[in-house]
Here is the input.
Amino acid sequence: MHMRLFLLFAALATAAAFAAPTPARPGRESRSLTTTTYEMSILKDGHVDLVLPSGAPVFVGAFPMIQFEGDEQPRVMTASGASSMRTEVNDPLGRGKGILLKKKECEWFINSYETQPFFSVRVAYINTTKKPVKVKALMPWCAGRPGKGALTLGAGTDSAVF
Here is the structure.
């Protein structure tokens, strides 16, 4: 009896040691990409959290932005995590998995590579109006809106939260 309890506790302790890291905002994720270097949670609202295997957040609430010619400030491009789709990646950076987040004017591609400790991000603007527009800048990876994002620059920089 004691041996069975010991084995049960050992199995539970082992499962807890290898459990997936807790996302920065648990319960709000729609999809995720996981590699040996990080876990990326795609939220239903289209924002992305990037977490290290230890559970420490690197980016919280990342999103794409666009700035049109004549605008003083860029604006957030809306992508939908709920209507995302998985893709296969085979480009000059390597092979891996990716996710396409799409909503009306925005196509946001996030690619992770199986053997590489990095990821790549692309964003495309689709003009759905009949008028031509001039895009000044597309920013595929932004974080840190006041009260809506965070960035960790490394060990000991917990004060780098915006």
About this structure: Residues 2-17 form the longest helix (16 residues). The two ends are 53 Å apart (CA to CA). DSSP finds one helix and eleven strands in the chain. Residues 15 and 40 are 21 Å apart (CA to CA).
